[in-house]
Design goal:
This protein has 292 residues and is an alpha/beta fold. It is built from 11 helices and 9 strands. Strand 1 and strand 2 form a beta hairpin.
């Protein structure tokens, strides 16, 4: 399988995305760096992880990846245009230590918020894409995330473009209290308007997708895709076991379990992500660009 640098060819207009995705030209030889898989605990060189799109070369575990990197994997060269980059959450409740935590996350990740939204093309098909980034407070949804997702939905509605959202979240952001929970209704209402106008929404669930994100926009896709073995649910399995006092079935809430029970339409490995999305967008355009 070709590596990312072989698959994605960057043009001049893509320099910003290339930099944000952490993709740089080849540098002089350096000693190999190793990454340990969180599932099988076996090591592989960073170069091998890169070639496999950060899927474990040994066991197939899909390691979480950041928003810009995922966008660089699926968008055509020269088509990336970020939307609402400057939007960020505020410490509306003056929650102890929250503002400092936000500043630290922004410095550490280079993000203003836990979601990246953009206009771009996949194999020539224009679309709007949102990617939740689990590096930023576990992809939790506060007012900033809710506003960016809502604006992306409204942009797709106004431009009659299909919408793709990659979810990866621990749920609503507790430091923002009711303001965070309000984003569930806000994003869902925007999707209802989008749906009534015939828009296509592809929801792509990655590990983990839980809490208020699962209970709102992540579950409202016309087409529900998921990466292998992603944890998908509202409460986590440990919380459920503690609540009901029973042991849950093996693989409960994983992508495969959700597909068997009808919540997920298809499990799509990362290596097939771009091709699958391109096929769905192509079929959508043949259908007149509207969901029937």
């Amino acid at each position: 399988m070709a590596g990312l640098l072989d698959v994605v060819k960057f043009g001049k207009k893509d320099k910003t995305l290339e930099t944000k995705a952490g993709i740089t030209p080849q540098r002089p030889w350096q000693p190999p760096q190793f990454i340990t898989c969180k599932k099988c605990e076996r090591r592989a060189t960073r170069n091998n992880w890169l070639k496999s799109l950060y899927v474990c070369p040994n066991c197939g575990y899909h390691q979480p990846i950041d928003g810009y990197y995922r966008l660089s994997m699926i968008l055509d060269s020269g088509t990336f245009r970020e939307l609402d980059e400057d939007i960020k959450s505020k410490d509306v409740l003056q929650f102890p230590g929250y503002e400092e935590k936000l500043q630290n996350q922004r410095r550490r990740t280079g993000l203003n918020e836990a979601v990246v939204s953009a206009y771009g093309k996949i194999d020539g098909h224009a679309c709007v894409v949102c990617v939740l980034d689990s590096r930023f407070l576990m992809g939790s949804m506060g007012t900033g995330v809710g506003e960016k997702v809502t604006r992306a939905i409204e942009y797709a509605t106004d431009k009659s473009l299909p919408l793709i959202i990659f979810s990866a979240s621990g749920g609503a952001r507790m430091q923002e209290g009711i303001f965070s929970l309000m984003q569930m209704a806000k994003t869902s209402a925007a999707l209802e308007v989008f749906s009534r106008k015939g828009g296509l929404f592809i929801s792509y669930l990655t590990h983990p997708t839980t809490g208020g994100v699962t209970a709102s926009f992540a579950s409202l896709g016309d087409i529900m895709l998921a990466e292998p073995e992603a944890l998908i649910g509202f409460a986590g399995p440990r919380v459920i076991e503690q609540t009901i006092g029973e042991k849950l079935p093996e693989g409960f809430q994983r992508s495969e379990f959700q597909q068997t029970h009808g919540f997920v339409d298809k499990i799509v490995p990362r290596s097939e992500m771009r091709a699958t999305l391109a096929q769905l967008l192509r079929l959508h355009e043949k259908n007149g660009g509207r969901r029937k």
